[in-house]
Amino acid sequence: MIIPGWQNSGDGHWQTRWQAALPDAVRVEQDDWDDAHRDAWVARLGEAIAACSEPPVLVAHSLGVLTVVEWAAETGGAGVRGALLVTPPDMDNVDEPGITGYAPIPTARLPFPAILVGSRSDQWMTFERAAELAAAWGARLHDAGDAGHVNTDAGYGPWPEGEKLLAELR
């Protein structure tokens, strides 16, 4: 299950490429990609998970990661096989117009296996903060190095390293 962040993942983004390449992949669609309200985005994720015939592996990027974590904190997170959580934004320390309700970030342990990908040059979250959240969530931290926000702007259309991480969870 592909869970993009704020403003969606465009045509060249690794999430869009994976969705096209994986026959069983579905994207969680939001009503408004530019105006992210926590409650609406979490509800939409919950609907998508409930519609699955088998427990999904969640592939979340940016604000999609926080949507997953918020959903798990709100519902208990049952029915998910695992999650790849890629470069979440630190909404506790970032104020972005168009994003509401995502602070404070939940720090409860996730009830499913998870890998958090952190970057040492992500403008939205320091690697040290990503490490803190990975520990709190019980997620394995993967150091992507100097990878920016692991998006198209940072050069991530194809992302073979991410495909290996996803294979571990699948």
TrEMBL record:
Protein name: Alpha/beta hydrolase
GO molecular function: hydrolase activity
InterPro entries per the UniProt record, alphabetical: AB_hydrolase_fold, RBBP9/YdeN
Domain of life: Bacteria
The organism's taxonomic lineage, starting at the top: Bacteria, Bacillati, Actinomycetota, Actinomycetes, Streptosporangiales
